[in-house]
Amino acid sequence: AAALVPPRPKPAWKDIVKYSFLGKFDLLHHSCTDIRDADWTTPVLCEATVKFFKLQCAREEVQCLNVEVRHLCTAIHDEEIKTNASINELLITNPLLAIELGRQWQARATINAVHLCQLNRIESQPAFSGRHGIGV
């Protein structure tokens, strides 16, 4: 530190620990500017900035989940209609295949019922901001 122009005070261990979070910024490794006195380098402001951006990401994630909840409800609904129609057609043309498909469908329908129950719980939350029901 003393060899620098202009000379700088020798850093104390507490200063090194205090500024350790700045190591996350690769851009600063190549900078000739002393950033130690900049407002954004204080741990409190850095932590507040990180929390702000995490909150922004959480809001974006909520918007994505609102869409995904509706899409999953719609996909389950559409699958049920198409599968039941296929089973009904097969009852005429191939009853044995229709019976087997019906058995396979029962297992899947049971799982879908669990998913729909959870999706309904999500939609019934007061904080849910998406559109209810099925649709695109």
Termini, distance in Å?
A: 63 Å
What gyration radius follows from the Cα positions, in whole Å? 29 Å
Biggest sheet character: none
Q: How many DSSP helices?
A: 3
Low-confidence stretches: none
Strand content bin: under 5%
Describe the structure.
This protein is mainly alpha-helical and 136 residues long. It contains three helices and no strands. It has helices spanning 13-18, 43-93, 95-123. Helix 2 packs antiparallel against helix 3 (95-123).
What would the keywords be for this entry?
mainly alpha; about 140 residues; about 0% strand
Give the secondary structure arrangement, pairings included:
Blueprint: H1 13-18, H2 43-93, H3 95-123
Question: Summed up, what is this model?
Answer:
The protein has 136 residues and is mainly α. 63% of the residues lie in helices and 0% in strands.
